[in-house]
């Protein structure tokens, strides 16, 4: 099976019953990665290639309370990084973003999503090839789903003939990635990840 070919559920690795536990606070802002959302907060889970660079994009945004990296959109319960990289779990590398709705909006979060990666590449992002690098938006509510699809339509119009391949759907399970992946580029300032400016810039009115 090729790296860019999505598996079916009966082909997926069996996984395990025990989840990866993340006890450390956010390395940058010391937020609790396991905290329940308060009444002014929402979360969204996004895949845009290598999750190291993707996470750094979002923890820097105004109104973002917390970020973490993990795996979603697949079949294998509680996967490891090595399993996800094998392509045999169906998961994509994702960032979970918790944001304060009194200080920012889902539209603003998605603007960064669309502009900071190439959503037309299918099962890859730049030189990173595989189903785990696919573009994805996993939503927590019907309202989020509607906003995600509206912004997709707007950006598709701006792109013209280049077809967006971003997967949009309700969030299933979100599994934390291993501790060393969390806020990786803050812990390892010289680390490399190609995410951060490969998308297309669009006029501000698209998200109004």
Automatic annotation (TrEMBL):
MF term (GO), any: peptide-methionine (S)-S-oxide reductase activity
Gene3D superfamilies, per the entry: Peptide methionine sulphoxide reductase MsrA
Assigned keywords, A-Z: Oxidoreductase
Listed transmembrane segments: none
Location of the active site: 50
Domain Peptide methionine sulphoxide reductase MsrA as annotated: residue spans: 44-193
Catalysed reactions, as listed in the record: [thioredoxin]-disulfide + L-methionine + H2O = L-methionine (S)-S-oxide + [thioredoxin]-dithiol; L-methionyl-[protein] + [thioredoxin]-disulfide + H2O = L-methionyl-(S)-S-oxide-[protein] + [thioredoxin]-dithiol
Keyword Oxidoreductase part of the UniProt annotation: yes
Matching InterPro entries: Met_Sox_Rdtase_MsrA_dom, Met_Sox_Rdtase_MsrA_sf, MsrA_MetSO_reductase
UniProt-listed Enzyme Commission number(s): 1.8.4.11
NCBIfam families: msrA
Family: Belongs to the MsrA Met sulfoxide reductase family.
PANTHER family xref list: MITOCHONDRIAL PEPTIDE METHIONINE SULFOXIDE REDUCTASE
Function comment: Has an important function as a repair enzyme for proteins that have been inactivated by oxidation. Catalyzes the reversible oxidation-reduction of methionine sulfoxide in proteins to methionine.
Protein's name according to its UniProt entry: Peptide methionine sulfoxide reductase MsrA
């Amino acid at each position: 099976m090729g790296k860019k070919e999505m598996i079916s559920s009966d082909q997926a690795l069996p996984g395990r019953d025990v989840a990866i536990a993340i006890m450390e606070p956010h390395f940058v802002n010391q937020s609790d990665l396991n905290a329940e959302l308060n009444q002014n907060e929402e979360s969204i889970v996004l895949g845009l290639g290598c999750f190291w660079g993707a996470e750094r994009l979002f923890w820097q945004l105004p109104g973002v309370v917390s970020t973490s990296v993990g795996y979603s959109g697949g079949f294998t319960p509680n996967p490891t990084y090595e399993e996800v990289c094998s392509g045999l779990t169906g998961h994509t590398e994702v960032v979970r973003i918790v944001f304060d709705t009194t200080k920012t909006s889902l539209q603003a979060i998605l603007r960064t999503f669309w502009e900071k990666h190439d959503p037309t590449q299918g099962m890859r992002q730049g030189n990173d090839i595989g189903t785990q690098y696919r573009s994805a938006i996993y939503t927590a509510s019907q309202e989020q789903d509607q906003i995600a699809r509206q912004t997709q339509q707007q950006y598709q119009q701006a792109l013209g003939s280049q077809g967006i391949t971003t997967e949009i759907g309700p969030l299933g399970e979100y599994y934390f990635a291993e501790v060393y992946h969390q806020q990786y580029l803050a812990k390892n300032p010289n680390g490399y990840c190609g995410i951060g400016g490969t998308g297309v810039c669009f006029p501000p009115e698209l998200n109004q």
